[in-house]
Amino acid sequence: MKILVFNDYCVVGNMALKANISVLSQNGHEVFGLPTKIFSSNMSYKDYISFYMPNFSEIVKKIFEIQKIDAIYIGFIDDEEIFEIIKDILQKFKGKVILDTILGDNGVKYSGTTTEQIDFYRELLKFADVVTPNLTEAMLLTNYNKIFSEIERKDVEKIAKNLLEMGVKRIIIKSFEKNNILNTLCFSENTIKWFESKKIDIKICGTGDVFSSLVTSELVKGEKLENSIQKIQTLLFENIIKQEKQDGLNEIQLENFKIGE
Q: Domain locations in the chain?
C-alpha cells in the first residue's frame, strides 16, 4: 500500500518521520514522507533548531500527481498554513486516515504545544479512521479536567467516548499506567477492549511513533485493530527489552519491527 506521511523530521534521533518510514517499509508499504517541520534533533536535546518545509503545498500537489495514495498518516503539525493544506486534502481524500497527535506526555504538555495546535488536531478528528493519542494527549484533546495521577479506567473510557463524539471512528489510547502496568484502550462504537503490557522502567524516545506506525500498517492491510494491538505491544516489548540501554537519552532501535502472523 502507498502511504503518505506528514510528520516532523528529526535529523538526530530515531523518531517521528524517520521511525514512520522505517517501520512502515519493513511491513511492506511504500512510504512517501513529507516533513511538516525539520528539527536538528528532538526537543530533549539542548539548543535544537527547526524550520518549516519550503514549498510544502507544491510538493504535496506533485505527490498526488505522481502517485495514487491509499492512506495518509498525520503526525506533528504546529503551523496554520500546513494545517489548512492538510485539511483541504482530507476533505477530498477517500483512503484511510491515521491521526497521531503530538502534544505531551506524562500529564504535561510539551514545551512548544499551543492551544492553536490542539485545535488543529480537534478539527482533524472528524476525518480520521483512527486516532492514537497517549493519555495526556487524549485529555488535552477533550479538555478532560482531572488530576493525571488520579485517572482510572472509567475515566479513560469516558475520554474515548468524548473523542468518538468529536467524529473519529476508532480511538487507541496508550500510556495509561496503573500498578506498574501499561494499559491500552481500543475503543469504537462497537468495541471497548483493554490490553496490558509490563512497564519497562526506562524512557525510550520514539516508541509512540513506532506504535502508531504499526497500527497504521495493520489498518491499511485490513486487519481488525482489536486483534492487532497485543501483537504490536509484544513486538515493542521484545525490542525494547533487548536493546542496549545507556545513561541519559535512549532512542528506539528500528531494525526489527515487522509484524508476524
A: 2-247
Evaluate if residue 58 carries a pLDDT over 70. yes
Q: How does pLDDT run across 19-41, given as a tens digit for each residue?
A: 999 999 999 999 999 999 999 98
CATH 3.40.1190.20 fits 2-247, yes or no: yes
Task: Give pLDDT tens digits for 111-131.
Answer: 889 999 999 999 999 999 999
Write a three-state SS string for the chain: CEEEEEEEEEEECCCHHHHHHHHHHHCCCEEEEEEEEEEEECCCCCCCCEECCCCHHHHHHHHHHHCCCCEEEECCCCCHHHHHHHHHHHHHCCCEEEECCCCEECCEECCCCCHHHHHHHHHHHHHCCEECCEHHHHHHHHCCCCCHHHCCHHHHHHHHHHHHHCCCCEEEEEEEEECCEEEEEEEECCCEEEEEEECCCCCEECHHHHHHHHHHHHHHCCCCHHHHHHHHHHHHHHHHHHCCCCCCCEECCCCCCCCCC
